[in-house]
Write a structure and sequence with these properties.
Helix content: over 70%
Shape: globular
Structural class: mainly alpha
CATH class: Mainly Alpha
Distance between the termini: 12 Å
Number of helices: 23
Number of strands: 0
Length: 437
């Protein structure tokens, strides 16, 4: 039995002409798409924080990697509660809960910075990520369910295309407002310690993170207010009767394509987070540029990610999602191998280019994985979001390799992850419904 998930080459002619966003659903679609932009900001500020906290707290790469560990533990720990809450009360309450947690965690940066406590920052990041877990558990399946299943992957890629715009915003804000541009040499540090001014310098560097996070928390509360006043489509009822769904049975979650999709998502998030987390250190180490230039280069790689998202949404009109996913993952295997074996400007450009090919992976794996889960879509979405724990599990491994060997050697971890994603796309992304020729 030939099974495939092509949204452009399957189904009836009338289904293929379905609009990406049905009439009457544009406002909620826009507001939910705004969430993709919003949650990219704290996700990508982490890459700035790793470098900033290595400096302001004088810690190692491995210790700084706990920023990502605390963050993605928040995603992991709250995904199931988010799914349970939304299964009972709907997507809208889940989104509002997520926005309130995001705001609370962002506002915690103020007392954490004044206390000068790294642990306090990790707690604040955990709270922020807990909120994002609610947002992602709700927003991804809600976008999928907001229109025809025939163009679900295309619709989700379109919404996700605004995610890298938030990433670019985050890195620009972090580079300009968090990075001071002051990088002390060993002799300068010794001189400040002797003069008793080094602790004051470190604290001033810590305080630079406050303003961006206060603005982020305020934006989350404003968006929550807009969503409260907006009527959402009744997709909670629709998904109960989705054609081709497997019904209410938990057996829906044991389908091969779903289980492999969760694992592929684990690999993808670990690869993406690790690649971006150590990008600044890679280009500083091998291209010899200062931190602010490295920060702007990180903005460049996120711009490549944004271009890839918009281009992928168009390519999915013509190419099966699983095949495009396989092609992009294979390209990243080659680019990461170049970054590992050519630690210089060539490797830096390859690393920058890898974001273009990462662009369509998360939404495509997500849409392929939850396809056909019916009323178990919220639970399936929760498990997909829990797979984000890959960012917590694999980033410290990269940090260990970077400290023990070299920054370039650490990139063998995401390289192997992309190889796993390519194999999943080719062999394991089997959907839950027949391909109709």
């Amino acid at each position: 039995m030939n099974i495939s998930v092509s949204t452009t080459h399957s189904g009836s002619a009338s289904e293929s002409r379905q609009p990406i966003v049905p009439a009457g659903r544009m406002l909620p679609f826009v507001l939910i798409t705004a969430l993709f932009f919003l949650w990219a900001i704290p996700n990508n500020l982490n890459d700035i924080l790793i470098r900033q906290f290595m400096k302001s707290f004088a810690i190692s790469r491995f210790a700084a990697s706990f920023i990502q560990t605390a963050f993605y533990l928040g995603y992991f720990g709250l995904a199931i509660p988010a799914g349970v809450l939304m299964r009972r009360y709907g997507y809208k309450l889940g989104i509002l809960t997520g926005l309130c947690l995001l705001a609370a965690g962002s506002f915690l940066f103020w007392p954490a910075a004044n206390a000068g406590s790294y642990s306090f920052f990790l707690l604040a990041l955990f709270v922020i990520a807990s909120g994002l877990s609610f947002l992602e558990t709700a927003a991804n399946p809600l976008i999928v369910r907001m229109g025809s299943q025939q163009n679900a992957e295309q619709r989700l890629n379109l919404s996700q295309a605004f995610n890298p715009l938030g990433s670019i915003t985050a890195t620009l804000v972090g580079t300009v407002f968090i990075f001071s541009g002051v990088e002390l040499t060993a002799n300068q540090i010794a001189a400040r310690k002797a003069a008793g001014t080094y602790a004051m310098y470190l604290h001033s560097e810590i305080l630079r993170v406050i303003t961006p996070y206060l603005v982020l928390g305020s934006a989350a509360l404003l968006l929550a207010l807009l969503i409260v006043r907006t009527e959402f489509p009744a997709v909670d009822v629709e998904e109960e009767h989705q054609e081709g769904s497997t019904g209410d049975g938990m057996g829906a979650l044991l389908q091969r394509h779903f289980l492999l999709g969760v694992f592929a998502q684990f690999l993808y998030v670990g690869a993406q987070v690790g690649t971006w987390s150590y990008f600044i250190q890679y280009v500083q180490s091998y291209a010899g540029v200062p931190e602010r230039v490295a920060g702007f280069m990180l903005t460049g790689t996120l711009a490549a990610f944004a271009i890839g998202r918009f281009l992928s949404a168009w390519l999915l009109k013509f190419i099966r999602p699983d095949r495009l996913l396989c092609l992009f993952a294979a390209c990243n295997v080659l680019l990461l191998l170049a970054a590992i074996t050519q630690p210089n400007w060539t490797g830096a450009i390859c690393l920058l280019s890898s974001s273009f090919f990462m662009s369509m992976m998360f939404p495509t794996i997500f849409a392929l994985g939850i396809h056909g889960l019916g009323s178990r879509t919220k639970t399936g979405g929760s498990l997909m979001v829990m797979a984000i724990i890959g960012g917590a599990a694999l980033t410290p491994l990269m940090g260990k390799l970077a400290d023990a060997k070299s920054v370039s050697a650490g990139y063998s971890v995401p390289c192997l992850c992309f190889l796993g994603i390519a194999l999943y796309a080719w062999f394991g992304a089997t959907p839950a419904r027949k391909h109709i020729a």
